[in-house]
Amino acid sequence: MKSKVTAAAGTLALIAVSAPAAVQVNMPGMTRPMPSKHAAKKKPAAKKAARIGAAKKVKRSSVHGSKVNAAQAGDAHATASHTPTARTTVPTGQDKMQMPPQSTPTPPAPMTMDQGQMQRETSSMPMPSQMPGAPSANGAMVRLNQFMVHSHTSGPRGQSRLTGPGMWMLMYDKDLSSRDHLSFDMMGTPEHLTVGDRGTPQLLQTENVDAMHPHDYIMALELRDSLTLDAAKNERLTFLFAPRGEAAIGPVPFMHRESAEGNPDAPLGHALQDGFHDVSTVLGVEYQIARNSFEATAFSGKDIVWPLPLHSSDSYAVRVNQKIDRHLRIGASYADALLPRDFGGAEHSQFVAAWLTASYPVGMVTLNSSLVWGQGRPAHGAARNSFLEEAVYQHGRDRFYNR
């Protein structure tokens, strides 16, 4: 609207400048003296005056004609341009000198609905600093999940207790270069205070007998350096060091898994599926190419004590993940871990796991689900198997869990 008002004001200014010339051309007689009655009686004088008047008229007509041509040229120039031409007039007392016209940029045409939509889409595109190969992910984030749970289980092994499971996370990311990304993750929990040594009652829980144990104050302290190997960012190599962190065993731990995020209860097969998220002295490497990732970690299976001591590696694990499409993912892992025995000492045990995760939109929300199988093979004793099906459906602020 502002450009239209400016254009209108400029047009009025052009008309005001051209108006005197138009009046002078259309009414030339008002500038000539009218003949008197006495002059009409003297024919010779009248003839002389007529000849002088004709000469002046011819001269005046030639001058007016040049002014008319100049005015017409100015009007034609103003009509050809979308915006008014800025002209500067400098009065000298006798003549008016006109400066050469200065062109001004043409304003954009009124925006249509399609153009407005295109502009919104264009404005939402990443800035040059966010384009591939430029630093983009930098900053810190804090996350906190805290619950209050009252568990009541009946029968000879049943328990009833009020507990407060929860966890907090601190994440920091920094782009060291266009192909080198550094991340730091720290995760802890107040469960030693809010849950206690007896844990949260859960019948048939494999982690502890009929209860989920409280996690340590510091569950993870991980440092990752990720290197992009190609310009298309299809290949990435990541190195991991963690005084306390996750070994490459099983799927993503339940507290971070999309199909269980926000669920305060651990799966009953936690020890056989994803229970190695807080082991000691983890060294790892991950290679990602297209939709596939391959991980290998070495760690210590010794009991974890405060404050985060470092141990030599005595266990290892490998894991592979594949993204089939935008909805489905599959994965599998194998591990050989040295674990303490209940009656003293330690022994090596093997752990095998496989999983399928799915994410599908249902209406305006998404349904996330997982199928997980985990098996533990102790050096002495029979193998134990666990199966898990879980899902979460979120509608607004409400979540509905299935397990």
Number of strands: 19
Q: Mean pLDDT across all residues, rounded?
A: 75
End-to-end C-alpha gap: 60 Å
| Order of strands across the main sheet | 3-6-7-10-11-12-13-14-15-16-17-18-19
- Number of helices, counting only DSSP H or I runs of 4 residues or more: 6
Order of helices and strands: HHHEEHEEEEEHEEEEHEEEEEEEE
The helix-and-strand class reads: alpha+beta
Strand content: 35-45%
- Tell me the major beta sheet: 13 strands, antiparallel
Whole-angstrom Rg = 43 Å
Shape: globular
Low-confidence stretches: 1-44, 54-100, 107-135
Quaternary structure annotation: single chain
General description of the model:
This protein is α+β, with helices and mostly antiparallel strands and 403 residues long. It is built from 6 helices and 19 strands. Strands 3-6-7-10-11-12-13-14-15-16-17-18-19 form a 13-stranded antiparallel sheet, with no helix packed on it. Strands 1-2 form a two-stranded antiparallel sheet. The chain has a two-stranded antiparallel ribbon with strand order 4-5. The longest helix has 38 residues, at 43-80. Mean pLDDT is 75; it is low at 1-44, 54-100 and 107-135.
Features:
403 residues; alpha+beta; 13-stranded antiparallel beta sheet; two-stranded antiparallel ribbon; 6 helices; disordered N terminus
Quick description:
The protein has 403 residues and is an alpha+beta fold. It is built from 6 helices and 19 strands.
Please specify the SSE layout and strand pairing.
Blueprint: H1 2-26, H2 37-41, H3 43-80, E1 89-91, E2 96-98, H4 113-123, E3 139-146, E4 149-152, E5 160-163, E6 166-177, E7 180-188, H5 191-194, E8 200-201, E9 211-212, E10 218-228, E11 235-245, H6 270-273, E12 279-289, E13 292-300, E14 315-323, E15 328-340, E16 346-362, E17 365-377, E18 384-395, E19 398-402
Antiparallel strand pairs: 1-2, 3-6, 4-5, 6-7, 7-10, 8-9, 10-11, 11-12, 12-13, 13-14, 14-15, 15-16, 16-17, 17-18, 18-19
Helix pairs in contact: 1-3
